[in-house]
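Practice problem: predict the structure.
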Amino acid sequence: MKKSSKTPFMAAPDYGHSLSGFTVNLLSADLPRALTFQRDVLRAEILHEDEDLLIVRGYGRNWMVHADHTYDKHPLLADTQNETRRGAGVELRLHGCDPDGTAGRAQEHGFSVLDGPRDQPDHGLREAHIVDADGYVWVPDVPV
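Answer:
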């Protein structure tokens, strides 16, 4: 059930038609907390924010974060209700995002740093693994 009270920055069909290649759509149990993570930790640009949806731009890409309630008629929502399932096994990598600064901001905002920041010589990258409030693992990295 959508709750939005704001006018979107672009009509949904127009935005859908503007997308190409690979995009990511995440579900969130706590959209205000997701907004804090996206804006204040990742320092991504928020293109649109309302009670239903965040449209985010950062590091050369756009992605969306939908509130759980917008998926009330979709079978994917039930799959996310198992705490061990949501976000499991997925790394969302942000190439060119400073892992040291991002990990510090994550800790300041009460998010968990799972690993790093540290150099990964096998990858040629300095990276950190940061868990957001919905259990998604974000990996900011820069070349070593």
